[in-house]
Design a protein that fits this description.
Blueprint (H helix, E strand, L loop, with lengths): L18 H20 L3 H24 L6 H21 L10 H18 L5 H20 L1 E6 L5 E5 L5 H15 L13
Antiparallel strand pairs: 1-2
Helix pairs in contact: 1-2, 1-4, 2-4, 3-5, 4-5
Length: 195
């Protein structure tokens, strides 16, 4: 995980120091593991599942901005792309409807996913690595936009469904209207009586 330089004729050589990003990703994995499997209170879940991952994301942005071998325009473009993707995801998942716990799904994609892409493309020329990183961020934003958050469980894990599937409220309304139609059956006496 030391500095790595890949020389390809005609393509720029970019040297990125990966070990700080790997350390940050490991911190994220550790915090998330603690929150999901060992945290017993809502505060522990929030700290391990959301607060520490947010700090890791900020740390990853600082690390990216300090990668001096990457052109400055690309560094700013990378940070801007991540911020825009996060803003879009938050805009399409209102925090009042359980969107805040959805960050436990979003943040690992942005941090652990970034490190995974950088390691998987280690021997690729820089333009391909840069494109893979941009594809990760844009692809995550598109995929996560297709998911709807219907609230959260008691442990604050988000209840998720595809946007095109009916909500629980819609299913309840259909169920009640079907039940009311079946209960409206009138009974008529076999023999007419007085009145």
């Amino acid at each position: 995980m030391n500095d790595y330089t890949h020389e390809t004729p005609g393509l720029p050589s970019i040297q990125i120091r990966l070990w700080p990003a790997v350390v940050l990703a490991l911190v994220h994995v550790s915090a998330l593991t603690y929150a999901l499997f060992f945290g017993h209170t809502l505060m522990q879940f929030m700290i391990g599942g959301i607060l520490i991952p947010l700090l890791v994301l900020i740390g990853m942005m600082i690390w990216w901005m300090l990668c001096r071998k990457v052109p400055i325009k690309q560094r700013f473009a990378g940070v801007a792309l991540v911020i825009l993707a996060l803003a879009w995801i938050i805009f399409t998942h209102p925090l009042t409807n359980g969107g805040f716990p959805f960050l436990i799904v979003v943040l690992p994609i942005m941090t652990i996913g970034t490190v995974t892409v950088l390691i998987a493309t280690l021997r690729q020329p820089w333009p391909r690595r840069r494109t893979a990183l941009a594809a990760l961020v844009v692809g995550a934003a598109v995929l996560l936009t297709a998911i709807r958050v219907d609230g959260s469980h008691g442990n604050e894990m988000p209840v998720m469904a595809w946007r095109w599937t009916p909500t629980s409220e819609e299913l309840t309304i259909v169920s009640l209207s079907t039940e009311q139609r079946t209960n409206k059956t009138a009974t008529v006496a076999a023999q007419p009586g007085p009145g």
